[in-house]
Amino acid sequence: MLKEHLTNSQISFIIFGVIVGYGIMPLTKDIVEKSGTGGWFALLIAIVIAIIFTYIFTYLGYVHENKTIDEYSEVLTGKFITYIFISIYIIYYFFAFTITTRIVSEAVKLSILIKTPIWTLNLLIFLISYYAVIKGLKSIARLCEIYGVVIIIGLLVTIVSLFTQGKLINLQPFFVVEDIKTYFKAIPVTIGPLMGMELIGIIPLHRKINNKKIFKYTVFMVAFIGILYILEVEACVTIMGHSVIHYKAALLAAVRRTEIKAFEFLSRLDGIVIAFWLMSVFCTITLWAYGTVFFIHKYCRKMKFNRVAFIVIALSFIVSMIPKTINQAEEVYKYIGYMGFVAAGVIPIILLIITKIKKYDIKS
């Protein structure tokens, strides 16, 4: 498959598409449960870490022009180490989009399609994702741009609406000095929803198309997502207080507790939230699926990209049905988060160090 070069804007929206997904629903519960009303500070720490990871990936792509991570990793570390790295990415991406699809199907079934079998919802999501994957990265990028704007508007309107109905007293204490250790201990939880920037590794950067402004685009997008997350958490807490820890889909629960006169013409405001949430989830699943197919196709060049995509999606559907309950699927999802930290942080840092030692950035 020929390399597809994307504009700075498209790359930034791909980052938005892969990061903002399933995590926006349980985000508030997880953060407040670990760090209380000081969750905003814990998130701020995670945002700084995510920005550093994003900058490293962008830097590697910019220095090793027109190369994807498997190509410049082979130059830096050799074939064997690269094979290990790429295997980690394949496993991570595969289980990420597989388990996310299962969890989302369970959530949709419980929320709006109670009588619909899980396998039907899974199959529908996988078929739509397959169609998007075979259309290529440029088409997915355009989709992320369109969906991204809708999701951002939807999230901002929802957040502002919640703040107008909530009680600011629920945010107190805003910050507790004695709990600083607790905020840092919450990093494993707060960093998870910000993972996804590793997808930059499969996008070849071309300096004629992606000038130095690419750093501003990627870093700004991650910072913007982080701010959205902070606002979402604070908005949900103003509505529900500490009781948010009892709701997996805290955002949805908060919306259902509000009565906004401006939206009286809508019988179900929560339905609108579910709609833009599903759009964000679809972008995430599709991008992870594309990443899986992209890397596997690198090692199976004799097979057509579309055929590899079909096999991966079919296998993913089978694996998605293995967990018997949503709790089992969520348990697997936690371990995927640990792999995400390795894929987004550990591997690029190793490649950055080698790049610096071998002075590839100076040569380029």
UniProtKB/TrEMBL annotation:
Report what the protein is called. Uncharacterized protein
Q: Indicate where this protein resides in the cell.
A: Membrane
State the source organism's domain of life. Bacteria
Q: Which organism is it from?
A: Anaeromicrobium sediminis
Gene3D superfamilies, alphabetically?
Amino acid/polyamine transporter I
Keyword Metal-binding on entry: no
- Asked if the record carries the keyword Transport, the reply is yes
The membrane topology term of the UniProt record is:
Multi-pass membrane protein
Task: Keywords in alphabetical order, please.
Answer: Germination, Membrane, Transmembrane, Transmembrane helix, Transport
As for family, the record states: Belongs to the amino acid-polyamine-organocation (APC) superfamily. Spore germination protein (SGP) (TC 2.A.3.9) family.
A single GO BP term for this record reads: spore germination
Matches recorded under InterPro entries: Spore_GerAB
Q: Where is the major localization of this protein? A: membrane
Segments traversing the membrane: 12-28, 40-60, 80-104, 116-134, 146-163, 183-202, 214-231, 274-296, 308-326, 332-354
Q: Which GO terms describe its cellular component?
A: membrane
